Amino acid sequence: MKTKRPAPRPRKRPAKAPIPETHSEAIAASRNVQSPALAQGSDVVVAEQDGVDSRDGAPSFASLGLAPDIQRAVAAAGYRAPTPIQRDAIPIVMQGRDVMGLAQTGTGKTAAFTLPIIHRLMGGPKRLRCLILTPTRELCQQVDESFRKYGQFSDIEVAPIYGGVAYEPQEKALERGVDVIVASPGRFIDHMEKRNASLDSLEILVLDEADRMLDMGFAPQINRIVSGVPPYRQTLLFSATMPPEVEALARKYLRRPVVVQVGRRSSAASTVRHAVYPVPRGRKNDLLIELLRKPEMDSVLVFTRTKSGADHVVRDLHAAGIEATAMHADKSQVQRSLAIEKFKSGEIRVLVATDIAQRGLDISGISHVINFDVPAQAEDYVHRIGRTGRAASSGDAFTFMSPDEIAMVRTIERVLGQPIERISIPGFDFGTVAAEP
Ligand code: AMP
Fold it and tell me: From the CA of 88, how far away is ligand 1's center (Å)?
């Protein structure tokens, strides 16, 4: 049992106080921060790049001051060094400051808040001290898994609370008492209404993937929940993008936050190799089958725009003798969990999903992401390909572009700030074959 030392509240610094020296390189880059309104009165830290920091003299988990039991858990997870967002956010969270983290999945952002929260809660009183709100069940499960993994040598108890499953086991867990709840907003409100959970002793509130939560229409639920949380708390907000709605949310709920930004906003994970395959719509399935025949395509996540599109692709793949499973909103929670499990274990190598799976899905070792349809929003492209090129690995992201999708690809290229390589396969590229009737 560790005795918990309360994290010291940092001394108030004027808005223009120097940023700590370890972040000196970030100072120059901080001019590029794209939310000047929020940055006003905040400290701004721009983590260097996506991926694991392997520079000489880069800090280790030990040098970040994390408790030895957490360091053991991190070592057991196989992590050698903190990623840039972990390097920058962990000490700030440990100081008790509010943080606005601009980072997409794949950058190691979950551990960036989970590790210092465990550090802070270890050995403390048993009561609900931390609430993490996430947009989807899948993300809820993943954050819960992270707490269990990184807290395996500590006494922290966590309960995941999400919809689509029975209330009773969740009620039992809440009754027993937990330190941390990881919840999707809708189901958590149900429990609040039934008085199953009290927020009176809450010390830390995390809004994970805030942009996604707002996109999904959770603003009223978030407001309702936060209004029940004591005002003297630490608030951490993570978001892949920074639209005005998220900025407003941050201004409402965060106090003098330190803004930690990984790389450039909207920049795709740097380990991902992108390519666009020009192909007529009617030949996309044949191209997919052709690509899936390559031995290096061993764990492939295919995105379609619609549920029926996903089912269609799975049917065609089956007909071609390729094992594949669909995952979308019409599937039950059990079917979705089973699909992810089989995909993770390698039992099936192709998972065909709609955007429901696009964010927060932590499946390490994905070799390829294929956008069967070009995503309608450029930001969605970034999130989708965030599934591959996870923290320390590399991956390929291919996009099938039919003639009517050329403009959408151009928009994505503008947002990325770089052109995406075109790969022309003779017989498929609409530049080399006759146009569709
Ligand atoms: P996240 O951005 O939180 O979704 O994490 C992306 C992936 O990176 C997860 O599979 C983590 O297990 C992995 N990860 C997190 N931190 C590190 C690290 N320091 N070194 C290597 N992998 C990591």
Answer: 15
Structure tokens at 170: 């969740």
| Separation of CA 89 and ligand 1 centre (Å) | 14
> Which domains are assigned to the chain?
21-262 (3.40.50.300), 272-416 (3.40.50.300)
Range from 20-34, 211-225, 270-284 that averages highest in pLDDT: 211-225
Going by the DSSP 8-state scheme, the letter that residue 9 receives in this structure is P
Least confident of 29-38, 62-71, 244-253, 391-400: 29-38
* Nearest-atom index, ligand 1, CA of 364: 10
Which helix (H) or strand (E) element contains residue 237?
Answer: strand 234-239
CA distance 78 to 56: 19
User: What is the whole-number distance in angstroms between the Cα of residue 87 and the centre of ligand 1?
Assistant: 13
Which pair of structure tokens corresponds to residue 311?
Answer: 């089912």
Any ligand 1 atom below 6 A from CB of 64: no
If one residue of 145, 390, 394 were mutated to test the ligand 1 pocket, choosing by the most ligand atoms within 8 A of its CB, it would be: 390
The pLDDT score that the predictor gives to residue 31 is 30
pTM for this predicted structure: 0.60
Is residue 271 very low, low, confident or very high in pLDDT (cuts 50, 70, 90)?
Answer: low
